[in-house]
Amino acid sequence: MVIAGSFERIHRSNLIGMGVLPLEFPNGVSRQTLGLKGDEKIEITGA
Questions:
Q1: Per-residue pLDDT tens digits for 16-40
Q2: pTM here?
């Protein structure tokens, strides 16, 4: 997983084309407000 502060629309399209799901935080939410440091493990079930 990569957390980016922002990405351009063309990069979003490229990510989707490569099978990467670009997720966005809602307004007012960031990695800082969530306390993310980069060493988290995330599991997505049922996908």
A1: 898 888 888 889 998 899 998 888 8
A2: 0.52
Query: Residue 47 has what pLDDT?
Result: 72
Cα 12 to Cα 16: distance, rounded to the nearest angstrom: 6
Tell which phi-psi region holds residue 34, choosing left (phi > 0), alpha (psi between -120 and 50) or beta.
alpha
Backbone dihedral region for residue 8 (phi beyond 0: left; psi -120 to 50: alpha; all else: beta): beta
Residue whose structure tokens are 């079930």: 45
- CA distances 28 to 9, 24, 43, Å, are 20, 11, 24
Structure tokens belonging to residue 20: 């990467």
- Do the beta carbons of residue 44 and residue 16 sit within 8 Å? no
